[in-house]
Amino acid sequence: MARTPRRQERVIVEVLLAVLALGAVAGCVPAGAAASLQPGARPTEATHEQSGTIAIPMGDQRVAIHSFCLAPDGNLLAACGGERMVYTRGPSGYEMKMVGEPSGIRVIGPEGKLLATWPLDVTPQAVNVAPDGTVYCGGQGRLAKLDPRGKVLQVADAPQVAELPPLTSAELPEEKELTEKEKAAKEAKVAQLTTRREELLKDIRALHKERTAAKDDEARKAQLDARYEKAVAEYRRVYEELRALTTTARQVAMRERSQAMRRRAVNGIAVTARDVFVVCPTTKGYGYDIWRLDRGLANGKKIVTGLRGCCGQMDIQAAGGKVFAAENSRKRVVCYDRDGKQLAAWGKADRDGGIEGFGSCCNPMNLRIGPDGAIYTSEASLGRIKRYSPSGEFLGLVGTSSIVPGCKHVAIGVSRDGGRVYLLDITRAHIVVLTRRKS
Among 165-169, 180-184, 369-373, 427-431, which is the least confidently predicted range? Predict the structure, then answer.
């Protein structure tokens, strides 16, 4: 939903208030993992180049692709369709409704031909394949297990749902009609609080400067600290009262519904011969948790908490009893054992054109374990794919694709021989194909 000027102002104020008020390890390398470049290769030279795109036509448009993975036979399994919440502008302000299209997994050949559609009753936000070909997908609080031919074997709740309250109705409440007298009183109160809020902000800024200047005068600083804390507390009270007066019941309902849907998201699924791992938003506060389930989607156990991801993005992959997370807000890849013990963490920010680190605002966004055991990473906005050893050694640039910039999901896939690499451009609803350079 586009931010209104008032909502933008609130975000700015919240950030300002928060600022003022608050003042690689070894042991994570699967057998057979790649440890170096091919002879003669230079790490800054791309081994692959963009050679095409794959899309699923739907009339004069394209089917939206939420994510994808590669099946053992080399076909692409694209997670498509399902419900989503949208906002529209109506006579009473913003309206909320659920829209969607048939949910399912689209099976696509390496050359882009649609081979089959596997219908689902689950909105697939994430999808992955077990070593035996069993397919797992999930989204909006639900998980599904399919056999290699697309038959649905099981559907279950996502693990975090047990910690969440029931999902409320999407129906929006009707607004109470105010009398002219009530409207006038409300407008006067809003004006009064707005003036007071601006006064307090001015006081807080001034006190902040005075506290900084008085850092060597303990008695003076103690006095200023007390005044500062009192001003901040008063600002919070005024801010909350003003927000309550200027927020309608419909806006509150939309915010609560949006938060409830966000917490039911399934950001990523990873599967080993023994376990299913699911990464999803934490049920309280902010951040992401990794859950471990058995292959029957039961016995869920939260094994990792507190992962940091930007713009609702977090990805995981697993192999050899280990789980790798692309913790994009911390510019790193983290490796855990199946019980959540951290084994390795590597990566660094590099927004100055370097190749070994991760650029843009929050990367790596997605990752995939290649056929040689190397970790392939993808970077949103940059469209860049690179290879690392599981312990973090930079192995080289795979390639760069043309994608729409933005902090968004950029799922990747790697063919068994490593000759083809795929990257999701979610905005354009297509998958970019990169093939190995002939040289």
Answer: 165-169
* Nearest residue to 282 via CA among 304, 257, 301, 300: 304
Instruction: Note the CATH architecture for domain 48-170+258-436.
Output: 7 Propeller (2.130)
Q: Let me know if 248 is exposed, middle or buried by CB neighbors in 10 A (0-12, 13-18, 19+).
A: middle
> What tokens appear for 384 in the block?
């860049």
Task: Give the helix, strand, coil percentages of the chain, each rounded to 5.
Answer: 25, 35, 40
**DSSP for residue 344:** E
Rounded CA-CA distance 264/258 in Å is 10
Tokens of 269: 């699924």
- Are the beta carbons of 267 and 279 closer than 8 angstroms? yes
Neighbours of 3 (CB within 10 A): 10
Locate the domains of the chain by residue range: 5-22+176-247, 48-170+258-436
Which pLDDT does position 22 carry in this prediction?
33
Q: Is the pLDDT of residue 65 over 60?
A: yes
Residue in the structure block whose two tokens are 């399994």:
77
Cβ-contact 50, 433 below 8 angstroms: yes
Rounded to whole angstroms, what are the CA distances from 352 to 207, 310, 332, 403?
Answer: 37, 20, 17, 20
Residue 1 has pLDDT above 50, yes or no: no
In this structure, the strands spanning 384-388 and 430-436 are: unpaired
pLDDT higher for 155 or 11?
Answer: 155
- The single-letter code of the amino acid at 3 is R
- For residue 262, what are its two tokens? 């966000």
Neighbour tally for 269: CB within 10 Å: 31
Q: What is the dihedral of CA 410, 414, 419, 421, to 10 degrees?
A: -10
Token pair for residue 129? 């394949």
CA-to-CA distance for 62 and 342, rounded, in angstroms?
41
Residue type, 172: L
- The radius of gyration of the chain from alpha carbons, rounded to an integer in Å, stands at 25
**Residue 217: CB partners within 8 Å, gap ≥ 6?**
none
The residue type at 221: K
CB contact at 8 A, 34 and 41: no
Residue 207 has pLDDT above 70, yes or no: yes
| 401: region left, alpha or beta (phi > 0 left; psi from -120 to 50 alpha) | beta
- Single out the residue of 67, 111, 114, 52 nearest to residue 434, CA to CA: 52
